[in-house]
Design goal:
Blueprint: E1 8-13, H1 23-30, E2 34-37, H2 39-42, E3 52-55, H3 64-70, E4 76-81, H4 89-97, E5 102-105, H5 110-118, E6 126-129, E7 147-151, H6 157-167, E8 174-179, E9 187-192, E10 205-210, H7 238-248, E11 255-259, H8 265-272, E12 278-283, H9 286-298, E13 305-308, E14 323-326, H10 335-342, E15 348-353, H11 356-369, E16 372-376, E17 379-384, E18 387-392, E19 396-402
Parallel strand pairs: 1-4, 1-5, 2-3, 2-4, 6-7, 11-12, 11-14, 12-13, 14-15
Antiparallel strand pairs: 7-10, 8-9, 8-10, 15-19, 16-19, 17-18
Pathway: Cofactor biosynthesis; adenosylcobalamin biosynthesis
Organism: Krasilnikovia cinnamomea
GO biological process, one term: cobalamin biosynthetic process
């Protein structure tokens, strides 16, 4: 009879170390043959844990499958900070080994501990991990009166957060940096973003941000003000942009190709609709490609991938999209064909045209595949002497179609 394999046990541990662990967590560690973890976490274990202690290699993710295979048949425990399923190694291990092969014993997360110390309702507080993400991902969460808990990468993260808030006009925001939460050396430092005087804090910290200041709020919905973009004029105007994003219909986790990205506005606002949305911006002009990257960082989606190249050749090798927007290159041979071929079943393609030649291409494809064809003409009020008149922008023809 074959013995049942040992489950892989992931134990959440806090700054309070062994003293803060539950009975089942202690039993898992004392009964383990091997314990994986970071150096800081492994150092929290007492001599009573006789298992072989193996620090994580760097880089970790590529090495994980091999580590699990090398220790198959042994009782393996993994130490993780706080709640392993909250921005932790637990979620990664479940994806690799499957939920039936992993047992997770969580500890209170640093976000839970911080909310408890501050008296902030966690359900009403935004939580963002900057452990591996760039600080620019904070931008979409910064709104007047909002509270944010930021999980830091290191001791310099609070200063970077303070600088970003100050640059956005939120220098009045009170900051509280809570370090070593739950441990014997727990402490906090406070200040405002504009006057932050702590360039390097304890590396194990959570930043509490209470957003205050005269900074201009950035809307949550598509159709951001045009002036928020650095552009050379190649920008889908906000009224057309809002209609275009509505036609694209972003859903959580979906991938967009923004072909002929210009200033990057469609891909950027696609990603802003949900943290899990992804986009690839394809742009043939080097200066514009650089501008797309800068706009993406400034508007809080630095993970936007920018491909410098000309479609359709630049599309080769990209992951299949759930939606495609074509804002340029419609008259180039193979662009529409390649995009439609790559699009997943049920995916949406939206193409905008402002020239007669591009309109003719869309009309032909509409005749062939159906979908919706519409034309938008926007006029904006502008001074006419001492009065106000309407100044028309170029009309835009929009074709949208869903792939069967």
């Amino acid at each position: 009879m074959t013995a049942e394999p040992h489950p892989l046990t992931v134990v959440g541990i806090g700054a309070d170390g062994w003293d803060g662990l539950t009975g089942p967590a202690r039993a898992a560690l004392t009964g383990a043959d091997v314990v994986f973890g970071g150096d800081r976490q492994l150092a929290l274990l007492p001599p009573a844990v006789a298992a072989r202690r193996v620090p994580w290699p760097s880089p970790l993710l590529p090495a994980l499958p091999g580590l699990l295979d090398d220790h198959r048949g042994q009782a393996v425990s993994v130490l993780a900070s706080g709640d392993p399923m909250w921005h932790g190694i637990g979620a990664t291990l479940v994806r690799l080994a499957g939920p039936d092969a992993v047992r997770v014993l969580p500890h209170p997360s640093s976000a839970s501990l911080a909310a408890a110390r501050l008296g902030w309702p966690l359900a009403d507080t935004d939580v963002l991990s900057l452990v591996t993400a760039p600080v620019e991902e904070l931008h979409p969460l910064v709104h007047p009166g909002r509270r944010i808990l930021v999980l830091s990468r290191d001791g310099a993260t609070p200063a970077r957060v303070a600088a970003l808030l100050t640059a956005r006009g939120y220098g009045d925001s009170p900051l509280t940096v809570l370090s070593q939460l739950g441990g014997p050396t727990e402490h906090a430092v406070t200040g405002t973003a504009a006057d932050w005087a702590h360039p390097d804090t304890d590396p194990l910290n959570v930043i509490a941000v209470d957003c205050r200041g005269p900074g201009r709020p950035v809307p949550c919905v598509p159709g951001l003000p045009d002036e928020l973009y650095d552009t050379d004029g190649q920008l889908t105007k906000r009224e057309v942009r809002a209609v275009t994003l509505a036609a694209l219909g972003p859903q959580p986790g979906e991938l967009l190709w923004d072909v002929g990205a210009g200033s990057g506005s469609i891909g950027i606002e696609w990603m802003r609709t949900h943290r899990s949305c992804r986009a690839v911006a394809v742009e043939s002009a080097a200066e514009r490609a650089a501008r797309v990257r800068a706009n993406a960082a400034a508007l809080g989606v630095p993970a936007l991938r920018v491909v410098h190249g000309r479609a359709p050749d630049a599309l080769a090798g990209l992951d299949a999209p759930d939606a495609v927007f074509i804002g340029g290159g419609l008259t180039r041979d193979g662009v529409l064909d390649t995009c439609l071929s790559a699009l997943r079943g049920g995916g949406r393609l939206v193409a905008n045209a402002v020239t007669v030649e591009s309109e003719a291409v869309l009309a032909a494809w509409h005749t062939r595949l159906g979908g919706e064809l519409s034309r938008i003409a926007v006029s904006r009020g502008a001074p006419v002497g001492g009065f106000t008149g309407w100044r028309a922008m170029m009309p835009v023809t929009i074709w949208s179609v869903t792939k069967p």
